[in-house]
Recover the amino acids of this structure.
């Protein structure tokens, strides 16, 4: 399992990486391995402001559909366009090409409430 230290994590298995005034959000390597083969990503919140811990979309694997939860309040600027034709990118590169959305972060203090890589690793080891 891969747990990049430069990311923040949620208890719901999303990650967020801040780059300047935008942030990228995706699901963790652990989450994609638990879900199995990703076949569809459904995110219709582009252009909307989504509150922390609210659902911003769903991700569908062969046997299940899971809600995606926003790690911090912000506006969804973009949905990863590559996922429409290649949802398996989430399986292949969860922290890179498999990102889900690009957002603005309304309150950077909310990021301090998220888990570090070590804390997230301990959470899933239980």
């Amino acid at each position: 399992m891969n747990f990049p230290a430069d990311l923040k994590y949620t208890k719901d298995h999303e990650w967020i990486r801040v780059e300047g005034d935008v942030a990228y959000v995706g699901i963790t390597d652990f989450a994609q391995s638990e879900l199995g083969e990703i076949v569809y990503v459904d995110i219709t919140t582009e252009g909307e402001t989504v509150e922390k811990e609210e659902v911003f979309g769903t991700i569908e694997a062969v046997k299940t559909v899971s809600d995606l939860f926003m790690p911090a309040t912000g506006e969804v600027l973009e949905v990863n366009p590559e996922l429409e034709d290649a949802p398996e990118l989430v399986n292949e590169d969860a922290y890179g090409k498999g990102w889900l959305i690009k957002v603005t972060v309304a309150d950077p203090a909310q990021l301090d409430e998220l888990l570090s890589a070590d804390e997230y690793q301990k959470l899933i080891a239980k």
In short: The chain has a mean pLDDT of 96.
